[in-house]
């Protein structure tokens, strides 16, 4: 979906990195290493996104740090688009459909850090969670979102991004 609208793979990686959660930030060389891309390609896209107002720049220890501009009028919409692109909305809907008492759904792992690695890790917290059901819907979800899905249940002390609940 997003890759047919935005043809720059580097720009998509940056949008995922910064809009999966507003807590993510990065600097030029770190992003180039993380994405295995040239600093020139990263710089070009960072400049475009900054000039459009989607990213904020701040000097930190002689480096320019970038992060999502949460005050931008399109921040929420872009975050929703990124979540939909990654299939997070599909996962939450499927899980809540017939799960028992779900208190919280968290995104863990690479995607919580804004890295589109191909494996989405989800922690489901609650009482009487229907684990058979969640395991049975994994192939359907994977087919829809074109990514591998791993569910964890009631994992404590995982600092993930809350998709549903508290």
Explained architecture:
It comes from Paenimyroides marinum. The protein has 166 residues and is an alpha+beta fold. The protein has two domains: 2-76, Arc Repressor Mutant, subunit A (Orthogonal Bundle), CATH 1.10.10; 87-165. It has helices at residues 2-5, 9-19, 28-35, 39-51, 75-86, 88-97, 109-112, 131-145; strands at residues 25-27, 55-60, 63-68, 101-108, 119-127, 148-153, 161-165. The strands form two sheets. Strands 6-5-4-7 form a four-stranded mixed beta sheet. Strands 1-3-2 form a three-stranded antiparallel beta sheet. The mean pLDDT is 86.
- Sheet/helix structural class: alpha+beta
Distance between the termini: 30 Å
Unreliable residue stretches: none
Adjacency order of strands in the biggest sheet:
6-5-4-7
Number of helices: 8
Query: How many strand elements?
Result: 7
If you average the pLDDT, what whole number results? 86
Total number of domains: 2
CA-atom Rg in angstroms: 17 Å
Largest sheet: 4 strands, mixed
> What overall geometry do the principal axes of the alpha carbons give?
elongated
Quaternary:
single chain
Beta-strand percentage range? 25-35%
The helix/strand order is: HHEHHEEHHEHEHEE
Query: What portion of residues is helical?
Result: 40-55%
């Amino acid at each position: 979906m997003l890759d047919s609208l935005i043809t720059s793979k580097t720009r998509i990686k940056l949008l995922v990195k910064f809009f999966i959660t507003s807590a993510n930030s990065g600097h030029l060389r770190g992003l180039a290493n993380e994405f295995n891309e040239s600093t020139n390609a990263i710089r070009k896209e960072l400049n475009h996104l900054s000039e459009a107002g989607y990213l904020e720049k701040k000097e930190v220890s002689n480096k320019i740090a970038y992060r999502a501009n949460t005050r931008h009028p399109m921040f929420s919409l872009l975050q929703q688009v990124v979540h939909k692109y990654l299939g997070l909305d599909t996962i939450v809907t499927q899980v809540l459909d017939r799960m028992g008492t779900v208190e919280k759904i968290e995104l863990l792992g690479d995607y919580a850090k804004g890295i589109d690695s191909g494996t989405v890790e989800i922690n489901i917290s609650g009482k009487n969670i229907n684990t058979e059901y969640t395991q049975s819907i994994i192939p359907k979800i994977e087919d829809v979102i074109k990514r591998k899905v791993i569910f964890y249940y009631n994992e404590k002390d995982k600092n993930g991004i809350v998709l549903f609940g508290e």
